[in-house]
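Supplementary Methods, section 5.1.

A reviewer requested that the exact input to the structure prediction be made available. We therefore reproduce it here, unchanged from the version used in the analyses.
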Amino acid sequence: MKKDSFTSKKSSIFIFVVILVLVAFFLAWGFIGFEIFGREFKNFDNSIKKGLDLQGGVSVLQEIVDENVTKETLQRTRELLALRVNKFGLSEPIVTIEGDKRIRIDLAGVFDSDDIVKTLTSTGQLTFKDEQGNVLLTGNDVKNATAVLTNEGRAIIQLKFTPEGTQKFAEATKNNLNKTIEISMDDQVLTKPVVNAEITEGEAVIEGSKSFEEANKVASIIQSGALPVTLKTISINAVGPTLGAEAIPNTMKAAVIGFIFIFIIMVVRYKFPGVIATLSLIIYMLLFLFTFTEIQAVLTLPGIAGILLTLGMAIDANILIYERIREELTRGKSVKVSIKIGFNKAMSSILDSNITTIIAGLVLYFIGTGGVKGFATTLLIGIVLSMFSSIVITKYMINLVYNMGLRSKKSYGLTKVVEQKNRGANENEYREEV
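The structure derived from this sequence is encoded token-by-token as follows.
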């Protein structure tokens, strides 16, 4: 029995050391970044996408000129604008409806605002015209338009037509061999390719783009087609990155100071389990930030508030667990039994508080827009991971250190006076299990 216990102790110590090494590795990856064998491990600052309020960019407010705009038309317009902006390869644009006729487009990063506005307000009819100006096809005849790179590195636009558009395009190419067909949105010529052959299968390729960006821009306008309404630009605001330049370093300082205070308080109150709680909190933060990076979420100021909120809830769950364990220890239970009962009793409180917060987060996500939705996304991710951290990681770590030989009640923050008081109350239950 002693040999088995010794083996368990050695293996537990080995696992604990491996966990510390892994945590150190991921901390170095996330906050410093490095390169190994040609593979770059980007830190969080370079891998997490930042929103308009942190990174800076352009905020464009558009208003619909038409009267009697329905909610369906407003939503459709928002979707088409989002499609146009997304097709340009911009970093997570935020397109939101404001009021009954206005749509705001927030683009994080540095862009040509005039070019973006020109693209967004191209609301007229998409047409295919011959050299005499006769309309051959419209945007309704196009099923799909995408920009691709050939094996030779040339940028081209691939078109697919509807069944009706296929017939029209076959007739158009037959009658305009070796001539140009002009594709335009309103009076703006998008491209003017030469017809090299009669095309009857409903698919065509447009060559001549100078770059992939240009081909992608033209394809996006052809794909999204004409907007169902006419827009006018109300305002164009260039947002500088000054706010983010101040907010992110200050947040990092606050996080470091907060971790130091949490560590001190937890160690003073709970002794070695306080160290485990802090380690569990670090693992939670790493899980959160790597998840945020993996799903390509956008970090905003409301998102930072959500992170801080879930951080507090994560440590609160650990406090609930440890207080329950201390209650059982003061009743004379053994450390092993107290750990088991403490986790079981704390579980209902942890689940109740977190499930309530999840419900609130879901309501904010589905009803809110813009920054509110960003806050809700951060909150939901954080709550789920904090539950995993407290229920799974903390429990595993506490049992691990118990198997390492940490079985004295003093190591769990119980004073000697209380220990002596309860020893006589239940001597058999107090005796440690070895």
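The longest strand covers residues 231-239. These observations are discussed further in the main text.
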